[in-house]
Write a structure and sequence with these properties.
7 helices
Length: 150
């Protein structure tokens, strides 16, 4: 199957190079910060190590919020424990992997001088959004089941 725009030589404008380098820098900072944390054994609450407030959903609604465990999952993945990361919050593990992949893709495009933004115009955004939503809702269902079982 031919991918539209795959071989088009879109040159990268200078401003895009700066934006991508800034995005990669922020991504490296966030991943480094997350890697310095310890995954909370409860499967959620790791964000509290960053000085953030505990999630109020489990207290108010007796169930986790849709993103409960995302930070814990990301930290577990960065500690090279992918099985735990996916068990804790599949969406969090996939989101972290997608962020790493995008950072590497951005660096590749910066080095080659090819526009990533022009290439992204050909990505199937509706499918990406639908898939991300389904994975998020499925992961939330999984998190609720694990929360109630524990």
């Amino acid at each position: 199957m031919e991918v539209p725009g795959k071989d088009l030589p879109f040159p990268m404008p200078f401003w895009e190079r700066l934006v991508l380098l800034l995005l990669v820098t922020v991504l490296v900072y966030v991943l480094s910060l997350l890697a310095s944390l310890e995954p909370d054994p409860r499967g959620m609450g790791t964000h509290e190590q960053l000085g953030m407030a505990p999630c109020s959903w489990p207290i108010q609604y007796d169930m986790p919020c849709p993103t409960c465990g995302v930070t814990t999952s990301a930290v577990a993945l960065l500690h090279l424990d992918p099985l735990t990361a996916f068990r804790i919050q599949p969406f969090g593990a996939l989101f972290t992997l997608a962020g790493i992949w995008f950072g590497l893709l951005a660096l590749r495009h910066v080095v080659r001088g090819r526009s990533l933004f022009a290439r992204m115009a050909f990505w199937p955004w509706s499918w990406i959004l639908v898939t991300a939503t389904v994975v998020l809702l499925g992961s939330w269902s999984w998190k609720i089941a694990v929360f109630r079982a524990g």
